[in-house]
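Final report, Chapter 2: Outcomes

The project's central promise was a pipeline that accepts a single protein chain and returns its three-dimensional structure in a standardized token representation, suitable for archiving and comparison. That pipeline is now operational. To close this chapter, we reproduce one record exactly as it appears in the project archive, with the input sequence first and the structure output second.
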Amino acid sequence: MSIVAAAPTDYTAPGVEEFWQPLIGDGAWAITRPMFLMAVSVGLIVWWLLATTRKKAIVPSKGQMGTEAVYGLVRNGVAKDLIGSKDFMRFVPLLFSMFVLILVNNFFGVVPPFSYPTMSRIGFPIALALIVWVVFHVVGMKKHGFIGYWKSLVPSGLPKGMILPIFFLELITDLFTRPVTLALRLFGNMFAGHILLVLFITGGWYMLTSGGVLVVAGGVTWVFALVMTLFELLVEFLQAYVFTLLAALYIAGAVADEH
């Protein structure tokens, strides 16, 4: 997003072009801005983890403390609490990676010069949701066997007439509802937050540069933009946390003794 002074008569409200920003090429195979930001985020995460963990100390530096705090949040507050002390450790790398990746890419939405939340492009949340979908089905089938895993979708003790309808409802939930809602929740919040910030900032700038009474309205709009930015920071953190939490919850259900 770029903020450029516009003439009072040519303001254009933000639209689809805010989310489709090709850098190289065009069409389906274009290298877009969100693709570039995803690559940048991976590089930043790798650099940060190496820089803060290469020289671990008993009295940690601020960087090491920050990394350990984030890791502890995912390890103890999500994986261990939801999956259980028996199975949780093998899923910590996946959950930690997802949480950090989503968090950094969400924060890009309010950090200049990026000013773009990568997860507002639906393809990225879908890819992460599909990884979670594959993982919890695979570990569930390894734990209970192929037939046992799908049979366990239906609670024992149901009347015979209820078994088939309940099975199909649970099948739809496991195969479709979970991955779709997991992806759409993250995408929808990042998409809506970004479009609102762009509207407040560009609209405020338009009014500030229009002169007259609109200058006051533009100033008020920018105050609201600042408030929205602070609120968006909270939403961006919560969405990364909720995505990771639900991923751990689905995995926990798949590996539970009574699935």
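Archive annotation: DSSP finds seven helices and two strands in the chain.
This record, like all others produced under the grant, will remain available to the consortium after the project formally closes.
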